[in-house]
Amino acid sequence: MENGIIEITFHGRGGQTAITASQLLTQLAFSKGFKDTIAIPIIGAERRGAPIQAFTKLSQDKQIKTYDGVVYPDYIFIFDTSLLDIPSVKATIKEGVKLIVNSQKPIDTSNLAKNIKVFLVDATGICIKRKFMHSSGPILNIPMLGAFGKITGYYDLKIMEKVLKKEFGEKKLEKNMSVARDAYESVKEEV
């Protein structure tokens, strides 16, 4: 956390809803009482399956005055473990960072920075089980954000329910909350 601003990087693939997750995170934090939040998507010629990146900055007590990308994140979301093999993704994983990884099994951290914390959540498995899918696969943003809320305490399931109802409507609320709850309850720190 630099200058009291919490910085988060999202690594996903086109269609995995990582950019939407970065935007939803700003709403969740703001609803919890953070003073300022900002989502910074990197949008280019991405296509389904191509690596993408997004950033979020959160501040509990002051205005955010920088709108550039995140270089030294406090947290990194990894929507797809195959992204850990990409040098530019691996380079963002600095000492002391906390990784939130979509995986049902432990990841190899031997070639990553030291003193990192890894939290695992089987977001893909949760989405398949709950049939929380779109045409290109699982919708990973909601379970990943459910896990993040549990890990950080920055918001809880009540805040998620309020924001998801406003964003996606009453009709989709129970399905959204079922995957959020599953992830919130199942995320584990890798030891």
CATH topology: Pyruvate-ferredoxin Oxidoreductase, domain 3
Uncertain residue ranges: none
Please indicate the count of domains: 1
Name of the CATH class: Alpha Beta
| SSE order, one letter for each helix or strand | EHEEEHEEHEEHHHE
Given the helix and strand composition, which structural class is it?
Answer: alpha/beta
- If you compute it from the alpha carbons, what radius of gyration comes out, rounded to the nearest whole angstrom? 15 Å
Sheet with the most strands: spatial strand order = 2-3-1-4-5-6-9
CATH superfamily: Pyruvate-ferredoxin oxidoreductase, PFOR, domain III
What would you say the CATH architecture is? 3-Layer(aba) Sandwich
Instruction: Tell me, rounded to a whole number, the average pLDDT.
Output: 91
The proportion of strand residues reads 15-25%
Largest sheet, in brief, is: 7 strands, mixed
Structure, explained:
- With 191 residues, the chain is an alpha/beta fold.
- It has a single domain, classed as Pyruvate-ferredoxin oxidoreductase, PFOR, domain III (Pyruvate-ferredoxin Oxidoreductase, domain 3), CATH 3.40.920.10.
- The protein is built from six helices and nine strands; from the N terminus they run E-H-E-E-E-H-E-E-H-E-E-H-H-H-E.
- A seven-stranded mixed sheet has the order 2-3-1-4-5-6-9, covered by helices on one side. The chain has a two-stranded antiparallel ribbon with strand order 7-8.
- Helix 1 packs across helix 5 and helix 5 packs antiparallel against helix 6.
- The longest helix is centred in the N-terminal third of the chain and has 15 residues.
- It is globular, with a radius of gyration of 15 Å.
